[in-house]
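Weekly modeling sync, notes
Attendees: S.R. (lead), two postdocs, one rotation student

Agenda item 3: backlog of single-chain predictions. S.R. asked that every request posted to the team notebook include the full sequence so nobody has to chase files. The rotation student volunteered to paste the first one in as an example of the format we agreed on. Action items at the bottom.

Example entry:
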Amino acid sequence: MKKQILIVYPYLAHYRAPIFDHLLDARPGSSFEFSVATGILSELPGLKVIDDTSALFQKHRPRWKQVKNIWFRKRLLWQVGVLKELFFRPYDGVIFLGNVYYLSTWISALVCQCLKQPVLMWTHGILKKESGLKAFVRRRFYNLSSGGLLLYNHRSKNLMSAAGLKRKKLTVVYNSLDYDTQKRYFYRYLKRPLGHLKSELGLPSDQSILIYTGRLTPEKRLDTALDLLCRLNADRKAYILLLVGDGPYADALRRRARFLRIADEVRFTGACYDEQMLAKLIMAAHVMLVPGGIGLTAIHSLSYGTPVVTHSRLNAHKPEHEVIQDGISGSFIDLEDVATLKRTVDHWTRQKEAHRRRLAIRCRKNIDTFYNPYRQRAAIERALEDAFKDISALTNSAVDTAQQGVAKRPCTGTRFRAAPACLPSVPREAKG
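Predicted structure, as returned to the notebook:
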């Protein structure tokens, strides 16, 4: 009989749909069946989330439990309904999103321990060295995960191991986007010449394309991208920049482009959720340029065979930066060094023009090997199997210890009708 696993998330962002569809599908040969408990209220304004009207929810309705999110100061979270689900449903194990600010997760994890259910936490973990009270609280929180932690990258695993967490309890499960759809579009548009793609999208044939996809927010340092474009085009207008996305920083970026007199070299496309259009845009580009911290954008770009150029401060990136192989599928550089930036962008532009197919296949290698939902599910299930083995071993050890304790308990003879074997038999009338 398959073990029932509940995954508790605050909400599912739209890009999480493929991995959760993959997890919630019944898989022949798997030892586990997954259910999910989520709310629909996000603390991030404008974030597109999956709700009960979505096709994904309707498809997996029997194993999708809705809970109510109550946010405090847009950071602390209590999820109403999770404890009820744990008490009244026969789950064998639980996977929580491992965020130390989710108050209900602290209590729920303790409840699971009382119910002898293994707890795993799916989390970014530690992204940089920490100390003091914050590090202490975080370690206490992660120690609630009796079954271990599911991490996004190896850097986090190494940092957490160095912080004292057991390495065998740390499993890297990577991350993914819409792998199957992206793979299909990748091979479809790889057959088309680069010039045809650019023409179809209305992009100039005589300029190279830099692209950024994602929300337009100050943290992404896209004003730096405009400054870089200005420097790259100082001699001649060799590049244009596509900003694919929307966000609170869009108007400020438009003003900045006008101030730098490069408005004609910057294209704002607005938000785009059409994967086919995104495939064309990214595959038509020569370089994905990300001046700020990079995360899922790296996976998206390499899924379509386009190299990534970003800064070299690894502790400022999200875990997904590890998908980039420096010098093979992109570059980590000092973006303030204009000469290096120009040399790097020129290098990848020439590679794209001269060896497009070879470069694209090379960029996809880590996607096909690690960053896909098939690899993720396999890694999660291995972690679960290890967690149940540990619990079984602990249970057997406890039983053995209890039995040994009974065998070694001193015998007085007063609790037994017959004298125990450890004492000689004494006639009743002789006692006294």
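Discussion: group reviewed the output briefly. The longest strand covers residues 32-38.
Action items: rotation student to repeat for the remaining queue; S.R. to check formatting next week.
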